[in-house]
TrEMBL record, chain B:
TM segment ranges: none
Entry's Gene Ontology BP terms: tetrahydrofolate metabolic process
Lineage, top ranks: Bacteria, Pseudomonadati, Pseudomonadota
Record's protein name: Sarcosine oxidase subunit delta
Gene3D superfamilies listed in its UniProt record: Folate-binding superfamily (3.30.2270.10)
Domain of life: Bacteria
Protein species of origin: Proteobacteria bacterium 228
From TrEMBL, chain C:
Biological process per Gene Ontology, one example term: tetrahydrofolate metabolic process
Compartment(s) where it occurs, according to its Swiss-Prot or TrEMBL record: Cytoplasm
Subcellular location, principal: cytoplasm
Protein name (Swiss-Prot/TrEMBL): Sarcosine oxidase subunit beta
Key words, A-Z: Cytoplasm, FAD, Flavoprotein, FMN, Nucleotide-binding, Oxidoreductase
InterPro entries: FAD-dep_OxRdtase, FAD/NAD-bd_sf, Rhodanese-like_dom, SoxB
GO-annotated cellular components: cytoplasm
């Protein structure tokens, strides 16, 4: 295993300068080494890659997509827009675009930033970004790179090089993925307070429950919460609930499992990452990831809410973070991502961040509250701790380049629409912002339910349920821990009632509910300059979409929110706009003078977070991509060194090369052997359908174009099948086994389709015919011996079948014993030679095959494959449906009018269709033979034929070569072609202009090249 | 992914087992040779293709191999009923508009 | 119309981009137009543009129930090619291909048409035969197309598994090097801006709810904003065509199905062409942004929900991972669906209807995007002259009665 990490730096240990000595859900006794951009760092068990990087004081983790601006970690979960990493210690285990905030740390983890040259810290592209940034408003690429026309692809090459995040591995994935199907009564999505209570309630009622959460442990926001529940610290309470849930046999708890798609009829997919937290490559005998496919009676969405950042100038400089993320890093990971904090908030909740920062022993410079008179319990607490509070104000701009140096603070008016007075620069290195909460409505959107704006909670909530779906907690705007717990119980109780289970006892634990003042709706922090002139105020950090860009889009006429999204690329990133979309929509609404409810929202689509291709494919790739079907003699073919051809799902012997033989040599040898003595073909793949019942004969009359009324027991007949449009779609020989019993054969590839076709007509149109169809393709082996010596050979192996040419005639079949095995022998021929198709039970197939070879040696019995079969049938002008036909060919076009019944009482399938105006034209393409003027030339199949090869382009075409082979028996090429009016053009010369520049002359002739009277098979 | 009740098997099964076969209740003309090209074309190709309630045929290909009918909304994908071949739907666009089902 | 150029961008940067004009107006509908086009997708907007530009008919309204380019134009996998088998289809799509070449300059709007080559993989002898047939037919129709052997394919598409160990090993491929991709939204917006500048009214958020006719002759359309008169109406509503036909009192030989697509997260360039496999049932290209853009097969049932079934996505990604094992660890970002109106022969309908003056342009099925300029161009001529453009003639609805179908299932690419 080669390692990408630099050996040189492995010994250098960087101190975890931002790590607290106490607290957090990390195991300080278990240090883990990892590398980032070639440097080795240390973190602890329980860390994410993001928390470990922050602990080590890493500010810049990448460069932005369009302007190459330095970016730092912004959030702590699925909504992270910036910290997109390349992971993997070996080439084969590379993973692009992993969110550092969701990647658990493991020992030996290798990570790299995805953009920046020479590195993310010093990126030369940023100079272009700085210089050209003004020239790159949204949609700039639609307005330029057009002239001269020929230059576009050169421009594009550089655009492509600059775009993209991580990279795909160059080697094949060594890991496996699997899938699991589930049915449950209640699927609870999210194991935060609402989800846990819902699952507990449903579990106690005896429901079959699945509860899934994307994080490594259950608890959601409670994992970093300062709250107590039932007198216990929140995380302790979680432990108790999880312990109880684990006791129920019918409850499945899935962690590291993201419900990423919500599909029709309550079908949901859960993407479980089983080993990504352990190693690069999954341990032996363990799948790396698993897709759980769940059909749920009821779904309870308890997906919570994401905090909304505030939009202000230079809000992307490293050190700008979400308030709740800062709290998470402090409380859950024991990491303070800076020294001096400025908190900007529109609501009370974010005050907790300042409290956490202060309690971690670091400096809170100020809390900037956009509200004029914030009051409430948390505000009082902050005051008590002596934190400076600046009400009615906002951070409108940021100083600093690679890290925040200062926050430019101004007072704003009551609605937050303009700056009212002069600025103060607050020296700080971290700015945490909170604009309130956006419910995670993604999954409900997947079902086609449009979210609805709610002014009271300042957010979109799920629209009316399209499925048996309930919501619990913040996802539909229920906030406050006590209410959330209760809401979880309520949702589950509704499901329990609908499931007709008994309501269980559930006691709501006590919680402390601080008094809060109303939040302020603020989606854009005003600057002293208008939005078009203010420094960049980022809305979508990953795609570098700014407030100015959104305003420009609306100014240019992109007024639908979908247009805004598409023109600016807002929400198109790998975070799918989890942080930015609501602000962006609000800014669009604001610039157009509309409300958010009027502007509406774009629709979130699956996936909630990205899903590995391999996990969706599961085991259905590689050698399990599609079923392989083998005949009973396959082993023998392999041992003889056969080359195989894929025909449908079957592996058919194509030809049997002997040492030193080319394909051409082998086919010539095989072809001659058949005509000179005897050859054998494994024809087991032909479809076989057993048809029984008093209505069978009439059914055949209707389904085939020819007549079946008079076929006697013991006889076989060739038939053509057409769709209602009169076009041939299958052919084969059907034999009468008994008065009400037939065996139909079909083409190899067409078997399943024909079976369905028979069932369709029987079940939907002619149920009055008593007839039964059974597919018996796999039950029989079919061994076709063909050639002048085939009778002699067969005679050696059967004593109870009279092979006399006058009693067992061409197109007869007989039952008897072959090589000691019960057999049906059909005297039918696809080579034009005396032939017997020996059908035996499949498990005797190899035995009989080998017996034939034991006796056949003296006749030079030669196995032949599909290629020789084609040569032999083409010499005789026999068609292959699907090769000589293409769905636009009638029996008459094939010159097979003899196979169309003229006086059948019932109007068979296809009869009317083949008489439509266009189908009875004289000039239709008709199947004819072609003989090249130069007999050494073999026309390529697919060549087009013309009358005048010198005609300027476009050249009128007559048709094309459908089959063409070299015939060793005739010593020249034989070809068949569909040619306009061909049947009345016998003897005409046509030309095949080939792609290599050659023009081949050929003469239209009969398609029967060998033994036109059919004497060879009637011996 | 649709969840389909096969009226022959008497069970809800995943869509994976089924194949959609297009509009239901299309009868083959009793006298094909008496049809004009237009009548024959209408029978073969022209479809209702409604936005909303639709009666369509499905095939339980990986199950009982029976064809059956379904009343389904083509916008919401809600399945109102499945019924055996030869039976008539009990839910129609008209019955839903009239408030009965 | 304000001209777009790199110089213009620089100039506007100096004025903080405050002086960009609207790309199109937001007009109040007039009472009457010479031509009404129902449907403001790529095809409808292209029709309006060419009506105004090539036929001088500018008193035209495009009526769109949602937002411009919001249907299949916004949802497709942006593949452009003209390698169709039958003469009629090949000529129509090649007409479109020629318009693609130079479209950015014609519209003064960069639609990012990029001839990065479209490969159709051959995995069986049958595929090879059909490939030869296609290449020869295309060449004689004046459409360059090439046949590559397995080794050439392996050289030109390094990420593709061309080994013998594949379930259906690659045996060769056809490649149309002029084919490629374009930026789908830009096509709609470019035509919209061009049409608007020539005087066409683009009327969004207005739904056509009926066709007014008298004695079998069209008089105009009923909309959610009242009646608008016109002696000629062209309906270009893709997946919704069946519904519109029903409003006009006839049926079409169409069924509307969900067609899904998906993209990966953006990754660094790894695939610089379009790869399609009819046999393994997957196709993929990489966008300029870095996403792998992947088309799924069509869902078998009728559906107007812009959603399909998950098993279709599973089969598609199995095929992609089978073809490109190096993509296995890449991650799917987003999936979505469009509504495609499929014809029994996988060819469009550009046709007069039983209502005089009412024309339909529909049935493009899974492959309409590539035809956008050509479809608009021939439909504009059809509406202007009130009779089918020569290239449109074979695509009349009559073919479903006469039997003169143009079966392009092979070339259409997506399994129907």
């Amino acid at each position: 295993m080669s390692t990408v990490s630099s050996k040189k730096s492995a010994s250098r240990k960087v101190a975890q300068s931002n790590r607290l000595t106490r607290g957090g859900r990390i195991n300080r006794n278990k240090p883990l080494k990892f590398s980032y951009n070639g440097k080795t760092y240390e973190g602890f068990e329980g860390d994410t890659l993001a928390s470990a990087l922050l602990a080590n004081g890493v500010d810049i983790i990448g460069r932005s997509f369009k302007y190459s601006r330095p970016r730092g970690i912004f959030a702590a979960g699925a909504e992270e827009p910036n910290a997109i990493m390349q992971l993997g210690a070996t080439e084969a285990t590379q993973i692009p675009n992993v969110r550092a905030t969701q990647q658990e740390l493991f020992d030996g983890l290798v990570s790299n930033s995805v953009n920046g040259w020479p590195n993310a810290d010093t990126d030369l592209m940023s100079y272009i970004g700085k210089a050209g940034g003004k020239m790159m408003p949204p949609g700039f690429y639609y307005k330029t790179f057009m002239y001269p026309e020929s230059m576009w692809m050169t421009y594009e090459k550089y655009i492509r090089k600059a775009a993209g995040l991580g990279r795909a591995p160059a080697e094949w994935d060594p890991d496996t993925y699997d899938k699991m199907n589930h049915h449950c009564d209640v699927l609870v999505v999210g194991a935060g307070p609402a989800g846990l209570m819902a699952a507990l309630t449903a579990a106690r009622a005896g429901a079959r429950v699945i509860i899934a959460d994307e994080q490594q442990e259950f608890g959601g926001s409670l994992l970093h919460s300062a709250d107590t529940i039932g007198g216990l610290p929140a995380a302790e309470w979680v432990k108790g609930i999880v312990t109880e849930l684990q006791r129920y046999e019918d409850v499945l708890l899935l962690s590291r499992a993201t419900v990423n798609g919500y599909h029709d009829h309550n079908f949901l997919t859960i993407h479980e990452r089983r080993t990504d937290h352990l190693t690069d490559r999954a341990p032996l005998n363990m799948s790396r990831q698993r897709m759980h496919k769940v059909r749920a009676e009821w779904v309870i969405l308890a997906t919570g809410a994401h905090e909304r950042p505030l939009v202000y100038a230079n809000n992307d400089v490293p050190g700008n973070m979400l308030a709740s993320a800062v709290s998470t890093y402090i409380r859950r990971y024991g990491v303070v991502p800076g020294n001096k904090l400025v908190l900007m908030t529109t609501n009370d909740d974010a005050y907790q961040t300042a409290l956490d920062w202060k309690l971690a022993g670091r400096d809170v410079v100020a809390i900037v509250d956009t509200r004029a008179n914030p009051t409430g319990a948390l505000i009082e607490e902050a005051r008590k701790l002596g934190i400076r509070l600046i009400p009615g104000s906002a951070v409108i701009d940021v100083e600093g380049g690679k890290r925040v140096h200062g926050a430019v603070c101004c007072s704003i008016d009551a609605t937050g629409s303009k700056v009212t007075s002069g600025k103060e620069v607050l020296t700080c290195d971290t700015i945490a912002s909170s604009g309130g909460w956006s419910p995670v409505v993604h999954l409900s959107c997947h079902t086609g339910s449009r979210p609805v704006w709610n002014d009271e909670i300042i957010g979109f909530v799920p629209g009316a349920a399209k499925e048996q779906r309930l919501c619990a907690g913040a996802v539909h705007g229920v906030y406050g821990l006590g209410k959330v717990l209760e809401d979880g119980v309520n949702a589950a109780q509704q499901a329990v009632a609908a499931l007709k289970l008994n309501q269980p006892e559930v006691e709501l634990p006590s919680t402390f509910e601080p008094v809060k003042s109303p939040a302020m709706a603020l989606f854009y922090v005003p600057h002293v300059k208008p939005v078009s002139r203010a420094p960049k105020q980022f809305v979508d950090l990953q795609n570098d979409v700014t407030a100015g860009g959104i305003a420009l889009a609306t100014r240019e006429g992109f007024e639908s929110i979908e247009h805004v999204k598409r023109y600016t690329a807002m929400g198109f990133g790998t975070d799918q706009g989890k942080l930015g979309n609501i602000n962006g929509m609000a800014i669009a609404a604001m610039t157009m003078g509309k409300t958010i409810a009027e502007t509406g929202t774009t629709i979130f689509r699956p996936n909630y977070t990205p899903v590995t291709f391999g996990a969706v494919a599961g085991r259905d790739a590689g050698h399990l991509f599609d079923v392989k079907r083998f005949t009973a003699m396959h082993k023998w073919h392999v041992e003889q060194g056969a080359e195989f051809e894929d025909v449908g799902q079957w592996k058919r012997p194509w030809y049997y090369p002997k040492a030193g033989e080319s394909m051409h040599d082998a086919v010539n040898r095989e072809s001659k052997a058949v005509r000179d003595s005897v050859g054998i073909l494994d024809a087991s793949t032909l479809g076989k359908i057993d048809i029984q019942g008093p209505g069978a004969r009439e059914f055949l009359n209707r389904i085939y174009t020819n007549a079946w009324a008079k076929l006697d027991v013991g006889k076989c007949r060739y038939g053509l099948m057409c769709h209602e449009d009169g076009m041939v779609f299958d052919d084969g020989v059907t034999s009468c086994l008994g008065d009400n019993h037939f065996l139909m054969t079909t083409t190899t590839g067409g078997a399943a389709g024909v079976m369905e076709w028979l069932e369709l007509w029987h079940q939907t149109e002619w149920p009055e015919l008593e007839v039964y169809f059974t597919s018996v393709t796999d039950h029989w082996s079919t061994l076709t011996i063909s050639g002048p010596n085939s009778r002699k050979l067969l005679a050696e192996l059967t004593s109870d079948i009279d092979l006399d040419k006058d009693t067992f005639k061409f197109m007869d079949w007989r039952a008897g014993t072959v090589a000691g095995v019960p057999a049906r022998v059909f005297r039918i021929s696809f080579t034009g030679e005396l032939s017997y198709e020996i059908n035996v039970q499949a498990n005797y197939g190899l035995h009989v095959w080998e017996k034939l070879f034991e006796h056949g040696a003296k006749y030079n019995l030669t196995p032949y494959g599909t290629e020789t079969m084609h040569v032999l049938r083409a010499e005789k002008g026999f068609i292959i449906v699907g090769q000589d036909t293409d769905g636009s060919v009638t029996p008459f076009d094939l010159n097979m009018g003899w196979a169309v019944g003229k006086n059948k009482p019932f109007s068979f399938l296809g009869q009317r269709g083949m008489q439509r105006e266009d189908c009875v034209r004289d000039n239709r393409k008709q199947l004819v033979g072609l003989k090249c003027s130069d007999s050494s030339v073999v026309l390529p199949e697919g060549a087009q034929l013309v009358d005048n090869p010198k005609h300027p382009v476009p050249v009128p075409m007559l048709g094309h070569v459908t089959s063409s082979y070299y015939s060793p028996n005739l010593g020249h090429g034989v070809a068949m072609a569909l040619i306009k009016g061909g049947l009345s053009r016998m003897g005409d010369k046509v030309y095949a202009p080939l792609r290599d520049g050659r023009v081949i002359e050929a003469e239209i002739c009969s398609s029967v090249f060998l033994d036109p009277k059919g004497e060879r098979q009637n011996v | 992914m649709l969840h389909i009740y096969c009226p022959y098997c008497g069970e809800n099964r995943d869509q994976d087992e089924f194949k959609a076969k297009g509009e239901a209740h299309i009868s083959r003309p009793l006298d094909p040779m008496g049809c004009t090209d237009q009548q024959w074309g209408d029978y073969m190709f022209f479809r209702k293709n409604p936005r909303g309630v639709h009666h369509e045929m499905w095939y339980h290909v990986a199950g009982c191999r029976k064809f059956f009918n379904m009343t389904r909304d083509t916008v919401t994908y809600r399945i109102y009923e499945t019924y055996k071949m030869g039976e008539q739907p009990s839910v129609t666009a008209e019955s839903l508009a009239g408030g009965q089902s | 119309m304000q001209r777009f150029s790199g110089f213009g961008l620089a100039k506007h940067a100096l004025s903080h981009h405050e002086n960009w004009q609207r790309m199109w107006r937001n007009p109040t509908p007039k009472k009457e137009y010479d031509v009404i086009i129902v449907g403001g997708g790529g095809h409808g907007l292209a029709t309006a543009y060419y009506l105004a530009k090539e036929h001088g008919i500018t008193n035209v309204a495009v009526i769109e129930k949602g937002w411009l380019g919001g249907g299949n134009t916004a949802r497709n996998t942006t593949i452009v090619r003209s390698n169709y088998l039958w003469d009629e289809a090949a000529h129509l799509y090649e007409h479109s291909m020629k318009l693609w070449e130079g479209l950015s300059q014609d519209l003064n709007y960069n639609v990012m048409f990029s001839s990065r080559g479209v490969y159709h993989l051959c995995h069986t002898l049958h595929d090879l035969r059909e490939g030869e047939r296609l290449v020869h037919a295309n060449l004689l129709n004046g459409i360059p197309n090439e046949m590559l052997d397995k080794d050439q394919v392996a050289r030109e598409i390094p990420a593709l598994n061309c080994g013998k160990n594949a379930r259906y090993p690659v045996m060769g491929a056809t490649v149309q090097r002029r084919g490629g991709v374009a930026r789908h939204d830009a096509v709609a917006w470019g035509f919209a801006r061009g049409a608007d500048a020539l005087g066409v009214d683009l009327i969004q958020q207005t739904e056509v709810i009926g066709f007014r006719q008298s004695n079998g002759v069209i008089e105009g359309v009923e909309t959610t904003r009242g009646f608008i008169a016109a002696p000629v109406v062209g309906c270009v509503t893709a997946g919704n065509s069946g519904v519109m036909a029903q409003q006009a009192g006839f049926r079409l030989p169409l069924e509307s199905h969900p067609l899904q697509a998906l993209v990966s997260e953006p990754i660094k360039p790894v695939l610089d062409c379009v790869v399609m496999s009819n046999h393994v049932h997957g196709y993929v290209s990489q966008s300029d942004k870095g996403d792998l853009v992947i088309g799924a097969g069509i869902d078998g049932y009728n559906g107007y929900g812009q959603r399909g079934s998950y098993n279709t996505i599973e089969h598609t990604l199995s095929a992609i991972v089978e073809m490109f094992p190096v993509f296995s660890r890449v991650r799917m970002n987003r999936q979505w669906g469009g509504i495609v109106d499929t014809c029994p022969d996988a060819c469009p309908i550009i046709s007069a209807t039983p209502v005089k003056g009412l024309f339909f342009n529909c049935g493009w099925g899974t492959g309409g995007f590539k035809a956008t300029p050509g479809s608009g161009n021939v439909f504009a001529a059809t509406l202007a002259k009130r009779e089918a453009h020569p290239l449109a003639k074979p695509f009349s609805m009559d073919r479903f009665y006469s039997g003169a179908l143009i079966d392009e299932h092979g070339a259409a690419g997506v399994a129907h």
